[in-house]
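User: quick one, fold this
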Amino acid sequence: MTINTPYYTIGEAAMESGISAKMIRHYEQVGLLKEAARTDAGYRLYNSRDLHVLRFIRHSRDLGFSIKQIEELLGLWQDKTRPSREVKKLAQSHLSALESKIRELNAMKSELERLVHCCKGDSRPDCPILEGLAAE
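Assistant:
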C-alpha cells in the first residue's frame, strides 16, 4: 500500500482487518459489506470505511455473533438515531445463548470426565467409556 492511497486491494484489506480475502468476498456476497469498487482490470478496492466495517465484523464474529446478528448490529451501528436499548437487547440475547451453551458444554465435560475416570485404560476389552456411550 502506498502512503496516502485511499484504496486497499483485497489482500491489503485482509491483512489490515484480520479477515481472509475469501471471507471478505463472502461478506460482500451475503450483504454485510457493500460491493467493492473495482479497477478497470476488475480488482476489488476497499476504502478506510470498508476496513472499519470489516474490523467491526471481525470483532463481532470473535464474540460469536451470527451473520444475521451482525447484519442487525451493523444496521444499528450505522443508524445514529437508534436507541441503545435495541443494541443491548440483541447483545443480551446473545449473552444468554452463550451462557446456555456454556452450561451444556460443562455438563458434557463432567460426563466425559466421569467416563474417562471410570476407564482403566488397560489391555482388557471392557471399557466403561463405550458402555456409557451405549447406555440409553
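User: anything notable?
Assistant: Helices lie at 10-17, 21-30, 48-62, 67-78, 84-118, 128-134.
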